[in-house]
Structures are given as structure tokens and as C-alpha cells.
Write a structure and sequence with these properties.
The chain has seven helices and twelve strands. By secondary structure, it is α/β, with parallel strands linked by helices. The chain folds into two domains: 112 residues, Rossmann fold (3-Layer(aba) Sandwich); 79 residues, Ubiquitin-like (UB roll) (Roll), CATH 3.10.20.30. The chain binds FE2/S2 (inorganic) cluster (FES). The site of FE2/S2 (inorganic) cluster (FES) has 13 residues, from loops.
């Protein structure tokens, strides 16, 4: 794993503290980026985004009934993991683009030539994801974000959360997240990214109107309190 000094702690922890033989407690991975049942796939990976895309490319290659093309983009090949394996395994189904050598991929052209029955999966830096959103049809595009998209919201207002099971009432101040307010009030909540990207803090909403600020689309009746707030003065949640 690459040591990213700007990480939120994950790569720092792995690089500075993890050593062979050290025991760590882990939970099962959560998949918010599942493969659908399309006939064809276009996978687009930017940099380390290949770690999410490569297993999907392998999975489709194992399915005789579907086919896939991979576009793998990085600055230089030296800095792009798995290039040799990708060329060896996927040959002309994979296009490796080193932008210093080849320039940026022509997403508009890829979108123009996209067959009707193709699902597009993209994982990479924010600029690449935004460019994919601009070119590919939304109903066939699946994005995996490592960082939140830049968006603006109305200023945070305070609201109240009622925990239906215990009857507890928790005040969420304008300067704190609902997740922090619940934790501080004796309602320990699971969390992961704290950016509305992973669904680890999922909570069921029974009454009230959440203001969804996540980037993965909370299912109806759910919200992610690490980022999402309330449009109503009160939310009743299943806690
Ligand atoms: S902690 Fe990841 S979505 Fe809330």
C-alpha cells in the first residue's frame, strides 16, 4: 500500500505501524460498487482506482456470457500497478494510457462508440469521475469515489433526533454531525469514511425529512448521519 501523507489515517497506519505478524481486527468488506448483470462492460480506472476495477474485470472475463474492455489511466507506467499483469491477461481488451506519454483518454469518443447494452464502471480521481459523469449516460454509469464530490449546501441548522427504541432525544447543533451527536449521547454508531461514501453509518429514518448529503445515494428510508442532516426540525430514527 502506498504511503499517502495526505490520507485520513489508513495508509499512515498501514505503513508506519503494521508489520508482519501483527494482529488486527477487521470486519467484512462492504460492497457499494457491485457488478450489475450487463452483457458488456466498459471499465475505466484512474491510478489506484485499478484496485477496485481489476477484480471486476477478472470476474467478467470469467463469465462466458459477458465481455469487457478496460481503460487504465495513470501519469506514467512506472507509477501504475498491475500493468504487466493487465497486458498479459487481457491483451487487446485493455488500453493502458500513461498521460505523460499518451495524453488524456478521449472520453467523448468512448461515449460516442458505447454499445447500447454496456454498463460503465469508473473508479479514480474526482476529475476523472466528473468527466465520466459529463460524457456517459447516468443510467449506465457506476462511480466509486474515494473522496467526496465538491458540492455546496445550505448552512447547517440545528435539529433534534428522536431515537424510537429508547425514546432518547438528541440535539444536533449546527457545528456538529448527527453521527457525532449520537455518539456523544450514548448511542455508539458504526462509521468508516465519515464522508458519505461507505454506508457504514446507515440508519433507518422513521419520521422526518433527511437532507441527504452523501455521494452514494442512501436507499429510501435510510440516511448516512456522518454527513446528512435534516430538513425537518425533528427526525425519528430506528435506534
Ligand atoms: S461513515 Fe461512511 S457513509 Fe457514513
Amino acid at each position: 500500500m502506498r504511503h499517502d501523507p495526505l490520507s485520513r489515517g489508513g495508509s499512515e497506519y498501514v505503513n508506519l505501524f503494521l508489520r508482519a505478524g501483527r494482529r488486527v481486527r477487521i470486519s467484512e468488506p462492504r460492497n457499494n460498487f457491485p457488478l450489475d448483470g450487463a452483457r458488456r462492460y466498459l471499465f475505466i480506472a484512474g491510478g489506484i482506482g485499478i484496485t477496485a476495477i481489476l477484480p471486476m474485470m477478472r470476474a467478467v472475463a470469467d463469465r462466458a456470457a459477458a465481455d469487457a474492455t478496460l481503460v487504465y489511466v495513470g501519469r506514467t507506467e512506472d507509477a501504475m500497478p498491475f500493468v504487466a499483469e493487465i497486458r498479459r491477461t487481457f491483451a487487446d481488451r485493455a488500453l493502458v494510457i500513461a498521460t505523460e506519454r499518451d495524453g488524456r483518454p478521449d472520453l467523448a469518443d468512448l461515449a460516442r462508440r458505447l454499445p447500447e447494452d454496456t454498463s460503465v464502471y469508473c473508479c479514480g480521481p474526482v476529475g476523472m469521475l466528473d468527466a465520466c459523469s459529463a460524457h456517459f449516460p447516468a443510467d449506465r454509469l457506476h462511480l466509486e469515489r474515494f473522496r467526496r464530490a465538491e458540492r455546496s449546501f445550505a448552512p447547517d441548522s440545528p435539529f433534534e433526533v428522536v431515537c424510537a427504541r429508547s425514546g432518547d432525544r438528541v440535539a444536533v447543533a449546527s457545528g456538529e454531525t448527527m453521527l457525532d451527536a449520537l455518539n456523544r449521547s450514548g448511542h455508539p454508531m458504526a462509521s468508516g469514511c465519515r464522508e458519505g461514501l461507505c454506508a457504514a453509518c446507515d440508519v433507518v429514518v422513521l419520521e422526518g425529512t433527511p437532507e441527504h448529503r452523501d455521494d452514494i445515494g442512501a436507499p429510501a428510508g435510510h440516511m448516512y448521519p456522518c454527513v446528512s442532516r435534516s430538513l425537518s426540525a425533528r427526525l425519528v430514527v430506528d435506534l
